[in-house]
Amino acid sequence: MKLKSLMLLTTGAAFAAPMVLAEAHGNMADSMTLVSWGGAYQTSQIRAYSDPYQAMHEGLEVIWDESSGEAVARMRAMEEAGNITWDLVDVVASDAIRLCDEGLAMEIDHDEVLAPAPDGTPASEDFGDLIVSDCFIPQIVYSTTFGYRTDVEEWGGNTPDDICDVFDLENFPGQRSLERRPIGNMEWALMCDGVAMEDVYDVLETEEGIERAFAVLDTVKDSTVWWTAGADTPQLLADGEVVFGSTYNGRLFSLIEEQDQPVAMMWDAQVFDLDGWIIPEGLPEDRLNRVLDFVRFATDTQRLADQAQYISYGPARASSAPLVSTHADLGIDMAPHMPTDPANATRTFLFNYEWWADYRDDLDARFQAWLSQ
Amino acid sequence: MSATDAGDMSRAAADARRADAESTGPVLAADGSPLKVSLNRALRAQKLRALMLIAPLLLFVLVTFVAPIIDMLFRSVENQIVSETLPRTVVALDDWDAETLPDEATYAALTYDFIEAAERRIHTRLGSRLNYETTGLSSMFRRSGRGVDDVGEEYADQFIDLDEAWEDPVAWAEMMASSDWLAAQSEWAATLEAEGEDAAGPEPLFQLSDGIRTLLPETADAYRSFARTVQQEDQDSPLEEEPWNSVYLALYRDLVTVPAASVVEYDGVGAEMLVAADTAVDGFETVDLRAVWEDMDDGWVEMPIWETIEAFSDPYTAGYFLAAVDLQLTPDGIEQQPDEQRIYLLLFQRTIFMSLVITISCILLGYPIAYLLSNLPLRTSNLLLILVLLPFWTSLLVRTSAWKVLLQNQGVINDTLVWLGFVADDARLALINNQTGTIIAMTHILLPFMILPLYSVMKTIPPSYVRAAKSLGATQWTAFWRVYFPQSVPGIGAGSILVFILSIGYYITPELVGGRTGTFISNRIAFHISESLNWGLAAALGSILLALVLALYWLYDRMVGIDNVKLG
Questions:
Q1: Where does the pLDDT of residue A96 fall: very low under 50, low under 70, confident under 90, or very high at 90 and above?
Q2: Is residue A113 part of a domain?
């Protein structure tokens, strides 16, 4: 009896030793809760990140939550209640900055936490400028851009190829759909009022600039459906309710390629935005170790490239771009559908997150007041 | 018999009863105790039993409903964040004239506060809070958090040039700390070394020595802030960490103001270092703190930031409530928001107006149905009642989305009208993404709440009354209007209150079909809760909405009388 348990112990130790070495993070929890946006995007994450990771770690339980839309408010409430139930949260860059500002997200050393590129380039260089906050682990680049119906008779065979066509009701009549918030719309409006892309935020800081932007938006105010959910525009385009609308490029990809609707993309002046992970502040040690181990795996070069097989969002690492292959189900080449593809990215811009953090409250109040009038 | 006689007689009767009670003692219960006491005991037990029976529900409601609501409403006035994050600055601003920039001492206080806030990572939180009031402060606080640890560096260098001991954490700690704390700390360190973290427990919280606090008040305060932050935030010992630059700044400021004699008299640890430093500080190169802060961000030498901190330094503020009614707190008092930012009053008006319209359309549509239901034979009316209830069992989201399909431009209704030739193809009716859409969808969704109370009240109206009226010669209309309708009013009252109060707080349907003109105040509240994170403003808007509902309820009670409301 004694001998048997001793043998069991030694064999156990012999098996355990290499595992401890492999899992450099020591004591790890055997369950983790990941939070994302649901839909096709979350599916792509499950297939590219968590399924392979679970295959490597038997007995690990992965719980997916779909609450990213209200992540900031929920995390603030969790912190006040002193009970953090999430381990890793997928948020857009502006939310990551706010969570970091509020002390709700953990600051990390990107080179230490994330894997280097296969050629040894440290993570901070591989991700480059996309690390917009000390708490933010970039994952994908997506863009807010336009889709239009290809069967509008009134357009006389013309197709829009310039952002200003959105505000041109004469040549491109019909209902539009734009997001019901100022971010993005204000920038586009100013660009169509002759402001150079690099000066947009300087102009928008002035009273006159805001009025100029609203004057441009006024031209389409009554022929626009103002959306709040990313799924609205694809639905409206498919129903023929609108002929021209802004939404996330991945939604348009699935409308055009997967659902085969008579819709095409207009990439001009697409706005890049980022999506990535943040780790909540104050996780207990074993859960933190698990998350750090997972996030290192899930954001390495190959995993980010794998995600692009399932959805048309660009991987955030420079080293992943050459590895992007074909769509897992449709078999089409994914590169031309990426917002970062050179043919699509002739004119793009990135939100100035810091600027919006300052002006968001003010401009939002004005924007809503403007909409109500 | 006169009135006086009657009075005399009753008095006499009472006297007789009292005399009787005195002679025989109080009425006793079976167990010998006075009946009064025993009755009271029985009643108390009964009440207690009743309370015990409802206790679980009461507790549940208190904990999960009342307490969170009170907590949330409390946020609408709560404003401790400013005085907690910048305590010294707020005190320094107490006697500020609010016309010129604050003095050097205020900038020094700001330095001490800000470095601690930045080390504890709460400065950005304050930045977002103050950004609600003055645009631009969010990034200003974030930027300043990166540079603030350099403020006072010049003084640190000069002290260290003078004597390297000024760089030594142990020398600092021994000079500043009380002997009790030093002893406790070394004991803690020894236990940590010998028996590990679990046995040692938490580090003893840093305590100042009394002597140094009297001699160098600013330095002592700055050092304590440093020592405790290091202990609490990084779980490090102050004996191993070099003090922040702000501590050297405080030391310099203290030494130039404290009279040389009291430094010479001081006999605590490090007295020699202090005397040497005191003689040297007069030759130190000085730093203009205002310029240092200006370097970090121009905003620090402009008036708005100081006015904002001053205006919001109280632990409680009316600021959120003011903002909720389109006003703002400025240094010159309460002012209206600029025209283009006024939105909340408009939304409150719209919410009330549209809720009224919805309530009225529910009455108009619901009354005939309820009348029909209550006058049909039971079997038929039960079947129809199920049809009324059916929407209850369908998801709200599904019903709202169904209205989208029906009402949109290329939707079923418009297509039918175009096909019938009632409207032209290029002039389709705009039935959705505006007020019309919200009213149609919400009337449909809330209709059962009107029909059910109406139905249950109408069921109780005896048909014989109307028959009697008719037999006395009333026309159909008179019989209905004079006899039937007044009896159904309590049902209308109950239904109206239900529908109105439900619709005033409705959120999801206006969000989905309201477009730009059909959204309610609740949509803004949701926005502030989940997107802008301005929970204070959301709480203020919510409180106003709650007060509004209560006021309308009171008004209703005054006009119609709440006793006239019946649910059956």
A1: very high
A2: yes
